[in-house]
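Blackboard transcription, Thursday session:
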Amino acid sequence: IAGITQAPTSQILAAGRRMTLRCTQDMRHNAMYWYRQDLGLGLRLIHYSNTAGTTGKGEVPDGYSVSRANTDDFPLTLASAVPSQTSVYFCASSDGSSGGYSTDTQYFGPGTRLTVL
Amino acid sequence: GQNIDQPTEMTATEGAIVQINCTYQTSGFNGLFWYQQHAGEAPTFLSYNVLDGLEEKGRFSSFLSRSKGYSYLLLKELQMKDSASYLCAVVDSNYQLIWGAGTKLIIKP
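(Written on the board underneath:)
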């Protein structure tokens, strides 16, 4: 692997179902993030993790949860999907060497296109 | 509130020069990023400015004026592959990254 991978590439999900989006990076980056991207809006941060074992809430965390058991993996779970969670989801990572995530260059995965019906 | 403004869409001709503007109103400033995003793909890093002035990287240059809350991305010698969305993002005083909605650039032959 080189960089960040996400799975699945796309998914159609019935409302109320549970879904986990997977994200794995092989760059040994400390920080990882989940964004959603909707037409006409900027990327919105859902959750982030500055280092393995820690997570934090972003701008739009409701309905989503994350875990960071190790450096490489950062799964995003929708406990009970709703149609408003239809979006493209991007996972990203950064070195985190600046001590805070925001001033480091972020490297993005290819995205997961999720449709909730 | 915090706000990043970029034009929604721009059109330019192959071989020409285009300037994509970004204005911001944020609680403080700790840097500004430009990312490129081709349709259906992930954003990729183009530039990061934290000090006023122009930074040049090949065909792409990025300018920042902190006093005016303004940045632009300048693309020279446009190629068809430059057709993409260009995202402006600002780091505020709390080190939160605020993203603009992006500018879709269409290059015509």
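Lecturer's comment: Chain B has no helices and eleven strands.
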